[in-house]
Each structure stands twice: as structure tokens, then as C-alpha cells.
């Protein structure tokens, strides 16, 4: 008999995001606790924990309306978040490249007035 391997936390998070992206709907926790085990194989006991980790990472939005909490995530939000991250990383890269070039220039300027000396090893 082979034992069924459990899902890692990252696999659960990915599968939970698939639920939101495929349905493009708003859910309550009890709805997700019913849907996740059937469609994605996430145990109902871990749905709340996985969902909270996604909310903490701003991948899923949560809003309290009355006495209920509603959860949602749309593909367009994820796309915009990735675009903003990409732009930030590209600007950091360009700043780093400019700094590298200026440091290379300052090294070249510093070498102009100096002469190489041979070190003697005893």
C-alpha cells in the first residue's frame, strides 16, 4: 500500500490562488473550506491557515462586511503587482549599473597619477 503524499505549504498556496483565479468570485471561509478539498485536494483543516498566509502576503484581499469576512483575488491584481515589482527591480538594476560605471571611472582616474611598483618577496 502506498501512502498518499501531503501537499507542501507552497503547493497549497498555489492551488488556493488557482481557485480564486479560475472562478473570479468572492468567497467566505466556509465556502472555501468546502471547495478546496473537492477541487484542489487541500485539507479543510488547513484552508484557514493557507488563506491567512495569502492575506498576510497581500495576494488575497479580505474585507469584513457585517459579521462575515469575504475573500477575493483577481488575476489582474496579481499581474499589476508583478509589473510593479519588475519595474522596481529594473530601476534598481539601472541604478546599480550607473554606480558601477562611475566607480570604474573613479578607479581609472585614481590610477593615472600612480606608478606600478614591484613587490619584493623575501
TrEMBL record:
Domain of life, per lineage: Eukaryota
Domain Mnd1 HTH residue range list: 16-75
Protein name, per record: Mnd1 HTH domain-containing protein
Amino acid at each position: 500500500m502506498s501512502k498518499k503524499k501531503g501537499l507542501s505549504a507552497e503547493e497549497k498556496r498555489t492551488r488556493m490562488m488557482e481557485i480564486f483565479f479560475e472562478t473570479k468570485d468572492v468567497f467566505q471561509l466556509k465556502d472555501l473550506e468546502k471547495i478546496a478539498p473537492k477541487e484542489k485536494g487541500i485539507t479543510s483543516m488547513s484552508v484557514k491557515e493557507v488563506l491567512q498566509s495569502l492575506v498576510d502576503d497581500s495576494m488575497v484581499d479580505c474585507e469584513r462586511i457585517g459579521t462575515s469576512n469575504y475573500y477575493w483575488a483577481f488575476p489582474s491584481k496579481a499581474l499589476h503587482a508583478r509589473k510593479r515589482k519588475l519595474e522596481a527591480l529594473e530601476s534598481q538594476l539601472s541604478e546599480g549599473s550607473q554606480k558601477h560605471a562611475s566607480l570604474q571611472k573613479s578607479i581609472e582616474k585614481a590610477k593615472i597619477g600612480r606608478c606600478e611598483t614591484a613587490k619584493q618577496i623575501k
